[in-house]
């Protein structure tokens, strides 16, 4: 996946390097030359032999047991999203029914009709690779990336308008890549060409991807700079659409009665 044949080992190593050894209970009187935990330290804290943990991190054991993964997750202080990602990396993927079938980007007619009726809300549907497949008319008015035919990741990293549209670009770009990594565990083969392309075209994307951060933000808020309006702060919720396609519906909305609500009504 994205030029790394040992995703499990790479993820464990990236989390291991982020753990402060002293706070993990490691007593070391020598001057440390490594960041985070050493392999043998993580192994002992998790109740494993150092040689066996090394086999896992080097990719010589790709499918450790759930109990071993739980022990590693505890020591590495993984959150729920990171744990789910860890388990998915250690689970052999099921062979698809049709290995020649490409991703399905068709949106169900009922969803399209729903978007047509939401004239007062920015809402859109994305594919696993973050292609925008369908949207309300207001969505593209608020953000040029929220327009069918665009890709949220490409816009964030390759479009010069992105730092203007996103006043908090650093946070948004980091979350976008970490969210894409969370998705990649379920859609690896489908996403691989896109990930390889983004790694080639954007140094910033490549650096964030190689950090192995995982994030699943299903709700929150975002600031967006809109032409002729200024900066809007909108809340959002996400909804996974039933079916095998991996489509997700994003719906943005303002706090009721505030200036952002008034500005969005004006745009609508």
Keywords:
268 residues; alpha+beta; 2 domains; five-stranded antiparallel beta sheet
Structure, explained:
The chain has 268 residues and is an alpha+beta fold. The protein has two domains: 7-90, 434 Repressor (Amino-terminal Domain) (Orthogonal Bundle), CATH 1.10.260; 109-267, Beta-Lactamase (2-Layer Sandwich), CATH 3.30.450. Helix content is 44%, strand content 12%. It has 13 helices and five strands. The chain has a five-stranded antiparallel beta sheet. Helix 2 (39-45) packs across helix 3 (50-57), helix 8 packs across helix 10 (169-184) and helix 11 (188-201) packs across helix 12. The longest helix has 16 residues, at 169-184. It is elongated and about 65 Å long. The two termini are 41 Å apart. The model is unreliable at 95-101 (pLDDT under 50).
